[in-house]
Amino acid sequence: MSLIMTLILSVAHARVLPLEVESLLQSVEADGLPVAQLESKAHEGVAKGVPSARIVSVLEGMQGDLIAARELLLLSETAPDQDELLCATAAGLRAGAEPSTLRRLTGLPEALRGPAILGMVDLMRAGFSEAQSVQLVEEATAAKRPDEALSSLTVASSTLLIQGTSHTDVLQLITAELASGQSSLIALSQGNSGNNGNSGNSSNSSNSSNNGNSSNSSNSSNSGNSGNSGNSGNSGNSGNSGNGN
Predict the structure, then answer these.
(1) What is the distance between the alpha carbons of residues 143 and 42, in angstroms, rounded to a whole number?
(2) From CA 170, how far away is CA 121, in angstroms rounded?
(3) Nearest-CA neighbor of 110 among 156, 141, 75, 144?
(4) How far apart are CA 93 and CA 99, in angstroms?
(5) What angle do CA 100, 80, 106 make, to 5 degrees?
(6) Three-state secondary structure of the chain
(7) 154 FRET partner, CA 20 to 30 A, in 67, 131, 143, 242?
(8) Ranges of each domain in the chain
(9) Nearest to residue 18, comparing CAs of 46, 54, 39, 59?
(10) pLDDT (tens digit, 9 = 90+) per residue, 200-229?
């Protein structure tokens, strides 16, 4: 978050929320749902001058996602009282993930469920299909250090996309890297960038070498010509001296 946005939100939090917004937040909290994200969203809307009716509409949508996420977790026989997992599942639904996909990810070890779902959401927002996103996330959770693989997955994929790598190629690169036993994917994106840089260095080196050769050749030629001129001159002098004697 930028410094300007942080300052805006800090000022907004000092303001009193509209009555209808405050009432909705109290209702969400009374229902046993995590309210922190909704409260932050409400203050952000107030700071930006968004009309109260629009803020309430957005918050009601987030509330609906949390309720649906809670029901999904109950059907999956997963405790819905974990705020992190509940919010992650709600984010998955908001991103358009299928409930069956989310239930599948809730079958992971407890410590990986929330991060895996949020990782999938980030990949989907980056343009990967739901199937591709789930594939990458599940491969990361199967790594030797799954927490490290998950935490570096989004960064590595985003960096590769920025470098111009296609989504299909990113999928193949990360799959191959994880299959080789690597857990951290940061080096993958750095290595790809490094290869591009090496290509440029190689070209520069080649040009430099060619320029150098050209220069040396030229100097050699000039040196030779100078030497010949000098020899010619000496030969002439020698001849003149002989005639004089």
Answers:
(1) 39
(2) 17
(3) 141
(4) 7
(5) 35
(6) CCHHHHHHHHHHHCCCCCHHHHHHHHHHHHCCCCCHHHHHHHHHHHHCCCCHHHHHHHHHHHHHHHHHHHHHHHHCCCCCCCHHHHHHHHHHHHCCCCHHHHHHHCCCCHHHHHHHHHHHHHHHHCCCCHHHHHHHHHHHHCCCCHHHHHHHHHHHHHHHHHCCCCHHHHHHHHHHHHHCCCCCCHHHHHHHHHHHHHHHHHHHHHHHHHHHHHHHHHHHHHHHHHHHHHHHHHHHHHHHHHHHC
(7) 67
(8) 111-193
(9) 46
(10) 444 444 444 444 444 444 444 444 444 444
Tokens encoding 69: 């996420």
pLDDT in tens, 147-156: 999 999 999 9
Distance (Å, whole) CA 161 – CA 126: 9
- CA-to-CA dists, residue 4 to 40, 120, 155, 185, 236, angstroms: 16, 29, 24, 31, 86
Indicate the length of the chain as a whole number.
245
Residue 223's CB: how many other CB atoms inside 10 A? 10
Q: Are 88 and 114 in contact (CB under 8 A)?
A: yes
What are 178's two structure tokens? 């994880």
Please give the model's pTM, rounded to 2 decimal places: 0.69
CA distance 48 to 42: 10
Question: What residue has token string 């998950």?
Answer: 150
